[in-house]
Amino acid sequence: MRIHIGTDHAGFELKGILVSHWREAGHEVIDHGCYVYDRLDDYPEFCIACAEAVVADPGSLGVVLGGSGNGEQIAANLVDGVRAALVWNEEVARLARQHNDANVAGLGARMHPTEEAVRILDAFIAEPFSGEERHQNRIDQMADYERHRPRRQA
Length: 154
Ligand SMILES: O=C(CO)[C@H](O)[C@H](O)COP(=O)(O)O
Fold this sequence. Notes:
Layout: E1 2-7, H1 12-24, E2 28-31, H2 43-55, E3 61-66, H3 70-76, E4 84-86, H4 90-98, E5 104-108, H5 114-126, H6 133-148
Parallel strand pairs: 1-2, 1-3, 3-5, 4-5
Helix pairs in contact: 2-3, 4-5
The structure holds ribulose-5-phosphate.
GO molecular function, one term: ribose-5-phosphate isomerase activity
Family: Belongs to the LacAB/RpiB family.
Subunit structure: Homodimer.
C-alpha cells in the first residue's frame, strides 16, 4: 500500500512514528510535511498536499494528523475526489473504509495515546471497501454532487 501522510506541528511526532512503523511493515510512505516542528505552522497546506496526492495516485490512501484532526479532515475534504473521515476508534476506522470507501483518514494526535493512534490507523489502512451496492450508491450520489455543484467565480 502507498500511504500519503500530512500533518501540522500537533501531529509531527506521531507522523515520525507512523512513517517508520509503516515502512518497516513494507508500505511505501510519502511524507507531505510538515518536515520540521514549528508550533506556529498551519495545517491546510500539508493536508491539502496530502489529499491532492491521494487523488492523483488511485489506490493509495492518505492520513492527515493534527491536534483534533477536525481541521485536517476539513482541509482534505476540500479536494475533489477525497472522502476524508475523522477516525477516533478502530471500528470507526474500519467502517470508514467498509461503508464510505474513505481514501483519507483524519486523526487527532492529541486525542489518543500513541499506541492507540497507531492501532486506529492500522485498522484504516488494512480494511477494504465492502463494494456493497447500497454503499456505492451513496458514494456515487456525493460524487455526482461534487461534479455538478456551482463553482464560485474568481
Ligand atoms: O487540530 C487542529 C486543527 O483542527 C490543529 O492541530 C490545532 O488547532 C493546533 O492547535 P495549536 O495551534 O493551539 O497548537
